[in-house]
Design brief:
- The protein is of the alpha+beta class.
- It is 32% helix and 29% strand.
- It contains 5 helices and 8 strands.
- Strands 1, 2, 3, 4, 5, 6, 7 and 8 form an 8-stranded mixed sheet that branches.
- The mean pLDDT is 96.
Length: 171
């Protein structure tokens, strides 16, 4: 099964945000290249909010290009075989934390936003940090920092706040 096919299955089983979900499915139906950065009309991306429920915190990255506090995530790569795997790869690479596991139940949210490269049709997962997790800044970040749930709204935009809320509701 291709990553494109996996994304279609994941989105068809996602039950929330019905209109946005349909827009993602329409995008994939119209664009065989809709998973890849080269698709200038926009592309599916995968992200993972790294969360430590025991400590009541999330790990955010100060994105090097956008200069915003965001969850880990980005473009799918040819080696990715599933959307969930792409999100977990991105979360692991950008956080430096090994042993992350995705919160069961599939994506937590969808978020469509414009970036300097194109529209991102982001499929957002949550990644649980193992006990004693130690983060390491990647070359895609200016900084990494753990934020208590209540502080996220003071540093991040509304899309990150909604992702944290949706993740906490799933816990």
């Amino acid at each position: 099964m291709s990553l494109h096919d996996d994304a279609v299955l994941v989105l068809k089983s996602y039950e929330d945000q019905v209109e946005l979900r349909q827009a993602y499915l329409d995008h994939l139906a119209a664009r065989p290249d809709g998973m890849w950065k080269a698709c200038g009309a926009g592309h599916i991306t995968a992200s993972g909010l790294v969360i430590d429920p025991e400590r009541g915190q999330v790990l955010l990255t100060l994105h090097k290009k956008l200069r915003m506090w965001l969850q880990m995530g980005g473009h799918c790569e040819p080696k990715d075989t599933t959307l969930a795997g792409s999100a977990l790869r991105e979360a692991t690479e950008e956080s430096g934390i090994t042993g992350l596991t995705l919160l069961p139940g599939g994506p937590v949210r969808l978020d469509r936003h414009h970036t300097p490269c194109a529209w991102h049709l982001d499929v957002q997962y949550a990644a649980l940090a193992p006990a004693g997790a130690v983060e390491a800044i990647s070359d895609e970040s200016l900084d990494l920092r753990w934020f208590p749930y209540a502080e996220v709204a003071t540093v991040a935009d509304e899309s990150v706040v909604r992702l944290v809320e949706a993740t906490r509701a799933r816990l």
